[in-house]
Amino acid sequence: MSEPSIGLALGGGSARGLAHIPVLEVFDELGIKPKVIAGCSIGALLGAGYAGGLTAKEIRERAELLLSGRIGALKFAFGQKRVNPFELLALRGLASLHVHGEKLASLVLPETLPEMIEDLAIRFKVIATDFDAMEERVIERGSLVRALGASIAIPGVILGPQYDGHSYVDGGVTNPVPFDHVRDGVDIVVAVDVTGRPREASRRNRTNMDLAVGSILILFNQVASLRRQISPPDIYVRPAIDSFSAGDYFRIGEVLEQARPAKDQLKRELEKRLRAAST
User: 65 with 72: CB under 8 angstroms?
Assistant: First the structure.
C-alpha cells in the first residue's frame, strides 16, 4: 500500500508565522513530504523555501541568521546580500512610504531556489488578494518572488506588485489559512493557523493601535473559522503564539520554543494516521 499523500496549508501571521518552522521539521523527521503546499503571507515565504528543496533545518538556520538582531539583520541585508536600501523602499507621495514586497521576498529567499513557481520540487500555491477585484487569487505559475511579494503585501506597510493592472495585498485578507487549496488528490489535509488572537491588555485601557490590530485578527479568525465549518481539514494545528505581536521577528527563539507543543501534536497525529494507513 502506498503512503498517504498530504496537502499542507501554511497560514499568515507575520512574526507569529515563524512557528511554521517546527511544523516543517515534523515532515523531515518522519521522512515524508507534502504533495502540495499552499501558503499566504509569511506562510508563503516559508512554504516557498520548503517547496524549493530546503530542509526545515536549513530554513531555521537561515531565519535565525537573518533575525539574530537588528544589527545582524542590517549586516545580512546590506553586507552579505548587498541590498541598496533605497531600492528596497518605495515612496508614493509624501505620506506613503512602503517596502517593496518583491524586493523583500528576494532578500529573504536564498538564491538557490528556482525563479519560477512551477519549477519548485513540490507543487506550490501562493495565496494573494486582488484588491481591485476584492477577491482571492491563487498563483501557481510565474515569478516566485513576484507572487510572494503580492502575498506578503501588508496594506500600508509593504507594497505588492501589480497583476493585469490590479493592485495586490496580503493573502490573509481573503484566506488566512488556505487549506481549501490543498484538498484535491490528497489523503490528508494539514492546516497550520498562526493568526493568533488579540493580546491581553497590558494596561487598563487598550491603545488605539491595540484595538486596530486586534480587530483585524478577529476578522481573520472569523474568516478561518467559517471556512473550517464549511469543510474542515483533517488536522488543524494552532501553535500557542498569542503572546507575540506581528512585529516580534527578533524574538524568533521564543516563538520557536513556544511552538514545540504544536510540533509534537502534529507529529503524533501524523504518525497515527500513517500507521493506520499501513495496516
Answer: yes
Give the whole-angstrom CA distance, residue 2 versus residue 186: 12
* Residue found under cell 507594497: 159
3 state DSSP class of 175: coil
Q: Are 53 and 28 in contact (CB under 8 A)?
A: no
Lowest-pLDDT choice from 6-15, 46-55, 205-214: 205-214
In angstroms, how far is the first alpha carbon of the chain from the final one?
9
β-strand pairing of 97-100 with 158-159: parallel
Give start and end residues of each alpha helix (H) in 142-206: 144-151
- Residues contacting residue 120 through CB under 8 Å, at least 6 positions apart: 48, 51, 52, 53, 113, 114, 144
Our CA dihedral for 217, 247, 262, 153, rounded to 10 degrees, sits at: 60
Q: Rounded CA gap, 262 and 277, in Å?
A: 23
Q: How far apart, in whole angstroms, are the C-alpha atoms of residue 51 and residue 207? A: 40
pLDDT digits (tens, 9 = 90+) for 205-244: 777 777 777 888 888 889 888 899 998 999 999 999 998 9
Q: What is the mean pLDDT of residues 101-130?
A: 93
Nearest to 120 by CA among 34, 51, 181, 59: 51
pTM: 0.89
Q: What are phi and psi of 246, to 5 degrees?
A: -60, -25
Residues pairing with 190 in the sheet? 8, 235
